[in-house]
Specification:
This protein is of the alpha+beta class. It folds into three domains: 3-97, SH3 type barrels, CATH 2.30.30.520; 103-260, Collagenase ColT, N-terminal domain (Glutaredoxin, 3-Layer(aba) Sandwich); 298-398, no CATH class. It is 41% helix and 17% strand. It has helices spanning 3-10, 103-113, 134-156, 177-187, 227-233, 240-257, 269-278, 298-308, 314-321, 324-327, 332-349, 351-362, 372-383, 386-398, and strands spanning 12-13, 44-52, 55-66, 70-74, 80-84, 88-97, 119-122, 126-130, 169-174, 197-200, 205-209. Strand 4 (70-74) and strand 5 form a beta hairpin. The longest helix has 23 residues, at 134-156. It starts with a helix and ends with a helix. The relative contact order is 0.11.
Amino acid sequence: MSIRSFFTLTTWFVVASVVPVFGQSTAPVAEKPPNTSNRESSELVHEVVFVRNGSRRKVAGRLLLESRDQLVLQTDDGAIYAIDQGEIQNHLQTDQIFRPATPEEIAERLLAEMPSGFRIHTTSHYVVCYGTSRTYAQWTSSLLERLHRAFTRYWSRRGFQLHEPEFPLVALVFPDQKSYLRSAQEQGAQISSAVVGFYSLQSNRVNMYDLTGVEAVRSPGNRRGSLKEISQMLSVPAAVPLVSTIVHEATHQIAFNCGLQTRLSDIPLWLCEGMAIVFEAPDLSSTKGWRGIGKVNHPRLKIFRKNQKSWRTARLKSMLASDRPFRDSRTAANAYADAWALNYYLIKYHPKEYTAYLKMLAQKPRLGKDGPERRLEEFHDSFGDVRKLERDFLKQMAKIKS
């Protein structure tokens, strides 16, 4: 699969389908970059000068992949750039060893990049660049760190050993919806005003804004000064889907940086999105935050139950074989509900097989592209006959209390 085509399909993870601004190519991709020194080329820093849309740019990083038409570089902050060979003016392999940037280095760059007034708050795993109050940034980083602990603990207990992120995880927190949407547009993320957060596979950043300013959350007398007050505001029913969206996107970021999933590999969206939904709803009244991982997601269950009434035998097989239902705004809501239901069922009733399936997906090469038949074959090898599993899936999900 071509590099730019892959980005066109999977650069943005949001609650609805988003199309990024990358071109396409059909050139074959070589996994092994050219080696012109005693060291592996991928260990060294490559400097590339290229021109795109009339602008001359310079990018330095390690060479992930190269074809005769394109190359892919990863910079020291974890961002990934796909560059057409025809855009390149100069490509130099240096003798410098590639190393990830430190939190301090990333913080300095973010402050130079973001508008005046943004500041930095760092934690063990995150660099939070914020234009909100410091308290809100602390609340956000606390939420993210609790998610990180819960996520790694959850999968470690199920036999999947994750690793620490290679790069500091970046979260951008804008002061309001307007500045957030403006930045999203500048990044090429075509999102609606209903989307309160997104994760970019290209930049490796989570983007969001101050949810306490949302009109549906605020009420007369509400204060949002302390961590406790912020948690109280964002625990009301109107705020739950907003916080869940942020958690959903942050889950993608963790999964792609801790070894559960590989960026640029062909991971079925039913698995990628459905698993993120499993982690969606934190308990903001708890200091641990995620006492109920794997509990029933009732909003998704409600949609799934509606789908179940008109379920057809080919529906599950169609979701397993293709990502199309997730990318069509007319079917995305139903697809996400079906994906949650399938992941919930597999984790609950086929936990060992589910973990083994995740491990298999984690080993997939970058930019590989599996056809529908291959996806169905891998699912069958992991979970058995699809028709038989589908019958039990529908039976067990019908027993869940709404």
